[in-house]
Amino acid sequence: MVVQLSFFVLIIVIIWLVYVSLSLRKLRANYITLTQGGSKKNLDDVLSTLVSDIAMTKKDIAYLMARCDKIEKDEKYHIQKIGLLRFNPFKDTGGDQSFILALVDAFDTGVVITALYSRSGTRWYSKRVARGKGTELELSEEERKA
Predict the structure, then answer these.
(1) What's the alpha-carbon Rg for the chain, to the nearest Å?
(2) Does 92 share its domain with 118?
(3) Which domain holds residue 119?
(4) N or C: which terminal CB in the chain sees fewer CB atoms within 10 Å?
């Protein structure tokens, strides 16, 4: 009975030693991975380098988030909607050779460019638009469609 108990304890000790050896080998591999490089470093140097790198990365992320917020705020003022409408303003000319081009931002503020084609030539007009309405001049029906 004593022999069986000793054998059982010996098996448990061997299993524990194998577990500790494997854990130590894994820990050593991680240590070598951390400290590999041009010069021999101790673990304190490696960890302080990692902490400073993490702090710098956090600053970079904060800067990038601020830039993204600014871009998202500013993008509403860039051209968001483009409308092109071809039409025939005069019955005596053939085809839809006249057109209206509307360039507005997210708030429907921008410009409407109109090109009217006639037999005598092409006339170009532009109108400022604020919140979907002409600022100086009223928008025509075609210009509102564009």
Answers:
(1) 38
(2) yes
(3) 78-145
(4) N
